[in-house]
């Protein structure tokens, strides 16, 4: 399994009060209803005010790199990319959950069993 992590940071002057930000969030929330390759999905707004904090996070689970690539190229995902590009910068991390360089503990150990 691959855990796909994306952290979004609004560019000035964008924030959650903007209709465009709310629309981008809604498209992102709805990806699992349009993209079969998604095996698990979480997205949410940051709740803390810190200089180093991102504004929004996406966590997606995919069976393998082929399914991750299909998701990346899917038209619904591309629509979300287009909307976020107007508002924010982001960073992506893709982690192979069964890989040698992935460590979990506590409740998150369940990720390795998915």
From TrEMBL:
InterPro entries, alphabetized: Dabb (IPR013097), Dimeric_a/b-barrel (IPR011008)
Protein name: Stress responsive A/B Barrel Domain protein
Pfam families listed in its UniProt record: Dabb
SMART domains: Dabb
Residues covered by the Stress-response A/B barrel domain: 2-95
């Amino acid at each position: 399994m691959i855990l796909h992590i994306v952290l979004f940071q609004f560019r000035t002057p964008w924030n959650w009060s903007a209709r465009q930000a709310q629309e981008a969030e809604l498209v992102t929330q709805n990806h699992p209803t349009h993209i079969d390759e998604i095996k698990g999905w979480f997205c949410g707004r940051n709740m803390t005010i810190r200089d180093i904090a991102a504004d929004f996070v996406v966590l997606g689970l995919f069976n393998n790199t082929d399914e991750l690539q299909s998701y990346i190229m899917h038209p619904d995902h591309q629509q979300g990319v287009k909307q976020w590009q107007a508002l924010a910068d982001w960073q992506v991390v893709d982690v192979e959950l069964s890989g040698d360089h992935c460590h979990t503990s506590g409740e998150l150990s369940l990720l390795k069993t998915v």
